[in-house]
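User: I've been going back and forth on whether these two constructs are worth ordering. Before I decide, could you fold them both?

Assistant: Sure. I'll take them in the order you sent them. The first construct and its structure tokens:
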Amino acid sequence: MIIDDEEKLRSLLKRIISLEDFRVLEAGTLKAALRLLEKEAVDVALCDVKLPDGNGVAFTKIIKEKFPVVEVILLTAYGNIADGVAAIQNGAFNYITKGDDNARIIPLISQAIEKKQLRDRIEQLNQKVGNNHSFENILGTSPPFLESVELAKIVAPNATTVLLLGETGTGKEVFAQAIHNASKRAQQPFVALNCSSFSRELLESEIFGYKAGAFTNAIRDKKGLIEEADKGTLFLDEIGEMPVELQSKLLRVLESSEYIKLGDTKTMKVNVRIIAATNRDLQKDVSDGKFREDLFYRLNVYTINLPALRDRKKDIPLLAKFFISFFSEKINGTEITMSSTFLEKLQQHEWKGNIRELKNAMERAVIISNGAELDILHLPLEIREAQSKNSTLSAFALSSIEKLHIQRVLIHTGNNKAEAARLLNIGLATLYRKIEDYQLY
């Protein structure tokens, strides 16, 4: 779009630019330009600085606020440094002088278009990455797992602090990313940090940053991850490993959204959502003096327990097929199937490493299968040697008595599993696992 009150100049520019296969719109005033911008998809605005109803430099700011994808190139008859600086500060792509820089107009328009195309491509990639971490791509149909997903979906739109509990490899970071991507902060940063990967000193500087001179070799200011995550989400994995000395600083962030960098005296404000995760028993750590009680209660506002893979064995075939498809496409591009004995062995294994262990096993199997159907020989030795719990049942086995008792309680409760778990004095996830193990469908 050309915005200029000189009709002859507009017509000339339109002819020149049209020859380069651009569709060109015209506006003689800022008011007319705004009306066009609201109706038409404009990539680049070529705007005069002095117009009957306003100034192009100031109008650039309005365009960038209302239509941020539009690139603005300003034209002026009398260029000056102050206007040029103000134009760039307001978001202009460039600022050129009429007459002197005419030869630059077409190359600048092309560069502005390239910038827009690059931004569009980045946005597409961000959306693709975001979709990969959405709830729709979290696989599982077992009741305890679906309950965890539903709890995560409920809390996602809010700014509430979330605590994810579960064994290593159960997908806590995947859940954290899905919560972030389903929140109002989805377009802002998601920053993840594993608290067990750093010493106390390094962890403090990683989270909160530092001022130059705070310690030896601190030659310049450094942003902490909490500042990088401003307006977005900070995911603190293995929060139970955070030293007690640092827990008070995190508590201050949760209570007042304030923190102080290492070596600084000035308080900084931050708008960040905290999602924490751990495989530890934090309540026990509180009792043992290893975790602050006040921080625990601040983190424990909304807790989601992620079930271990052994508690959701009916999901193993679904997850295995997904990983096989992913790795076969990545490695050899062929479609690979599983034999019944292969799948049976997967379901017999305890999966102490949970989904992460299953993923690694599937990658190994796909690699050594060379495109053939996956069979027992493609599995690691420890999985091949796993024995089914049901294969050892006998009339005299304690497990047989347990199976019969659970069956009777389920009949008594009309298959109400929550009530059955209460009567049996076991957790609901444990009951679901035993139903799977004993095939009490």
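The second construct, handled the same way:
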Amino acid sequence: MSSRPDHVPAYKLHKPSGRARVILRGRQIYLGRYGSPESREKYGRLIAEHAARGAASASTPTRENLLVVELAAAYWQFAEGYYRKDGKPTDHLFCVRRALSLLRQLYGTTPAVAFGPLALRAIQGSLIDTGRARVYINTLCGVIKRTFKWGVSQELVPETTYRALATLPGLKRGRTAAREPAAIGPVPDEVIEATLPHLPPVMTDMVRFQRLTGCRPGEVCKLRPCDLDRSGEVWAYRPAGHKLAHLGRDRVVWVGPQAQEVLLPYLVRASDSFCFSPAESEEKRRAEMRGKRKTPVQPSQVDRRKRRPKRKPADRYAKDAYTRAVGRAVAMANRAREPDDLLPRWTPNQLRHAAATTIRRQYGLEAAQVVLGHASLGTTEVYAERDARLAREVMKKIG
């Protein structure tokens, strides 16, 4: 049988018996007397179910003999197409890959119908033994539960199998041996300022823009002039794609006067090109190096770039590259500092925490929620660290 996703199995005649037949998922299914309305009706129903099941599970065995490894392979094909945004895989897809890999390693040859809460608890235990954090363990176990839930929707796994897995709760804080992940807090402004001299000028402006607006690292990386509404005193930046776009929510990053001043030099370009460009940053770096040169430039050294490099600077920064650059800048800054005065390692996501904390301190929690674009105050509280100074002042007077 063809493995093409658009292939429709044919309605065929079984000559020895005179019956109609169709081959689905490697199985020959008889439909009744060839040419009869009943056989045509059954053929249409089977083809519709085959199409609904999709190419991802078209070659999967029936649920009676389905193994965990086969269910994991079928779900992975589905997840590869589902967990995508703007044509690129989302970060969650990497969690799916890790969870399915663990599932295959430990229980690959187990029948899917026999995989129950005790097996899932054993996976929890193996992750605890390897030192994984509680939140990460819950994420991977959640992926495994969704794998079996998807299997139920495809009629590959009985519903009772998923219902049994759903009874196993996630690990609770303080009630498990799994370690707690370190809390992500805001990065102090003095640490930011000490890091900036070791970043390229373009990335320095990215950090300043993100600190002033509280936008996400990915949002500053894909900023374009055409995404900005500059008609008002405060500009409105609407990212082309954002974290909650699949939920139908609008996302607006408000750009005030200070952030506008940072951004202005990057707006003189094509409206659909990215403001912060690695190629442009590389050109500035080369120009700066030429300006600092004290010896004459030899003719052979005027332009030493390769004619056909294997890798060219991208048209925009990836958020992971942005994070790595900040980490390198912190390491460079620490080379000139005393061992007891080293800068803590920080990431661009902490700039969002820092902006949230500043807004909450001056204007309250609701203002921080609106500016950061959170759906709930609870989410904002994770980002906006409580200001201890206010509590100290209050207790100084009344305590």
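Notes on the second construct follow. The first strand starts at residue 12 and ends at 14. Residues 178 and 191 are 31 Å apart (CA to CA).
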